[in-house]
Each structure stands twice: as C-alpha cells, then as structure tokens.
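Listing 4. Sequential folding, example run.
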Amino acid sequence: MEIKVLIACEFSGVVREEFRKRGHDAWSCDLLPSDTDNTWHFQQDVLEILYDDCWEMLIAFPTCTYLCNSGVHLLHKDESRWQKMVEAAIFFRTLLCADIPKVIVENPVMHKYAIKHIGQKQNQTIQPYEFGHDASKRTCLWLKGVFPLQPTKLIKPTYRCKCGGKFEYELGKYGCPDCCGDSGAARGVWGNQTPSGQNKLGPTKDRWKKRSKTYSGIAKAMAEQWG
C-alpha cells in the first residue's frame, strides 16, 4: 500500500529514492538542494511543511553537530555551544514528537546533556556492517509507530594484529599467521577504518557531507521493512 513519506534533513536522496522505488510517494526536504533529483525535494525549512496533514511517515536526519557524544568536550571550551545545543535538541524533539503515525529520527551516539533535553534515549542502535557494508558507524534510531530495523546482511571485520599482520575474522583474535598470537589480541577493523579504528576520511570541506550520507543498505532496509 502506498504511503506518503517525508525524509527530513536529507539532501542526498538516498532514502527518498529507496521508498520511491517501492511505489511510495516519498519526498526529501533540506536547506540544501538535492544531490540527485530536485523533482521530489523541498529546499526549505522542514518545519514549514512538517505540520501538513498528508504525511504518514517521517524519517528525519537532523544535524548532530551539537548533540553527538564525540563533540561533547567542545561544550566546555566554547560557551556559545550550549545555547546551540539546546536549540538543536528542541529541533530534534519537535521532529520526534511530530503528529505523524510513524516517526523515525536518526543521529549518532548522543551526549548526556542532549539526551536530557530531548527527554529519552534511542530505541535502537544499528551498524552499516549489519546491512551489507564493510563499514562501522554506530547509529542511533528513535522510533515511533514502527518496529526496530532488522539486520539484512552481516559483514565481519578483518583482524589487524599489533605486529602489523592482517587476517580473516574466522581465525580468531589470536590467530595472526605472522606472529601466531604472540603480539596479543588483534583488533577487528572494517573497511572505513584505520588500523587504530578511526574513520579513514581526512579533514576536508565536504567531509561532513560524505559522513552524513545514509548507507544504501540501511536505506533499502528502511524502505523494505517500514514501507
């Protein structure tokens, strides 16, 4: 059955297009133009259309800059970030509490101050490697009116040993063929990570844009399971 879906704070069109492939009337909305097709995209503040009576599902990707746990230390270095954090939390909660039957709001792991303002923790945490991608990026979902997203294809990491060796996950963390485990436990690392587990993407002007793009396997699962 066709439903009318609003994909808020999405300029990539990845999630929108997965829903449209399955016959749904899906629209994205962002302050930026769509990277793919502006035909089904509102380039404006999502709050201007959020309260229309037509939406049956909302999937939102609000900016995480002031909410994510990885940036919490900056709150104690820059006083101006506290007010911006509160504003971001209010926006997040506005999306989460929208009068729409099915609501999904996505963000990275949040710090405790943001969670306090929003009023609730996430309902689910997912990883790209649960949906067919050789990548790790812990992602939290706040859910209303839908079941938790079910993994579709598990991708196992490659082990990286302290001696520098790389070997398959099936050999176990002490199974390094180069040192036979004498260097200690190896670390499981996915394709988007450095040997130490950090993200490979270096600091560039469009790093935030690349990082914010939804993995296609997750988008496909959203459309298949929630559409």
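-- end of first protein; second protein begins --
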Amino acid sequence: MWDGFCPTHEAVTPEEVREMRDKYPDAKIMVHPEARPEVVKIADFVGSTSQMIDYASKKGIEKYLVGTEKGILNIMRNANPDNEFILLSEVLICPNMKKTNLEILYTSLKEEKHKIHINSEMATKAKKALDKMLELS
C-alpha cells in the first residue's frame, strides 16, 4: 500500500476504464503506476510517461487510451503522429500542473524567486516517493 497518492490518477475508476474499453475495444489502455491498484490491474500497460511514449513507439500504428495527465497527449501525438491517443478519463487534468506556465518558470529562474521550503520530514517522504517512481521507471 502506498503512503501517498496522486488525486488526479486516483479519480479514475475501474468502471470508467471498463466503459472506455467497451467503447474502444481495439485500443490499448496505458496508465501510470499512481492509478488505483484496481485500474493498474486491468490496464494493458503500466509505466511512467516516457515508458508510455516508448511503448506506443514500439507497437506500431495503434489506438491508445491514456491514463495520465491530459497535458501529455500532445507530446505523445508529436512523438507518434500515426497513432491515436484518447484521454482515458476527463478527470485526468491536474490542477497543480496547470499552475505553472512558461512565464512563471522564466521569472522564477531569472529572479531566483518562488523558492520552496519544506521541513526535513516532508523532504524524506518526498524523496521516498521520487525514489519509488524512479525504481518503477
């Protein structure tokens, strides 16, 4: 059992996955490991974003139901223009990922502002999550 979770990935239900599989029976379902265990169990492929892109690149021209943040669809489509990528669920829009844009990033780097300070307990937990993500990828 995970000590934490991604609320965006957690929102996708097994029922929703089954409905989409019925709607697109010829599509492969790809999800992140952060998805609910029941969703991971019924997916065709589980992996990081880069692993999903690699998987689609090696399989040939196919249709994919993508179970990760909506923003990655453009990257997948650019990397594999002959494939069709469909968002697995409309809930896969991360509000936190949408808070940062290029202007904010540029200003943050240029002016060295928006520093993030966390306590050592939180840093330890964050490192554990990152290490697990890297282990899975």
